[in-house]
Predict the structure.
Amino acid sequence: MKADLIENNVILSRTIDFSLSVISYCELLESEKKYIVARQLLRSGTLIGANSFEAQNCESNADFIHKFKIAAKEINETQYWLLLCKRSENYPDCEELLKKVEEIDRIVNKIISSAKKKKPLSYFLALFMF
């Protein structure tokens, strides 16, 4: 996928930025020996973007929706791990990550609801371009 395509696609650019932030946060968690949460958060937080990327080369509208539904599940799991971090004593601040994942959640839910309206697939791929 070309870099300019990624930069011009709202969901792809946001999920890449979010994944990089999650990686940095998880490195911080690992430096504090919080390995279990770090690994779970790293997995779910980066899979949001991976599934968004996969949706860009989907085979059908149903496949497109399915990929984003998987991304939505990963968003929910990521929110869970971040809320555990937020509520736990001696964990680094994750408020900014929570805000970012909530923004991504709104975008993904909008993509899913729009895709269910049976518009042509090309419409959805173009819809989230800057």
Notes: The chain has a mean pLDDT of 90. The two ends are 16 Å apart (CA to CA).
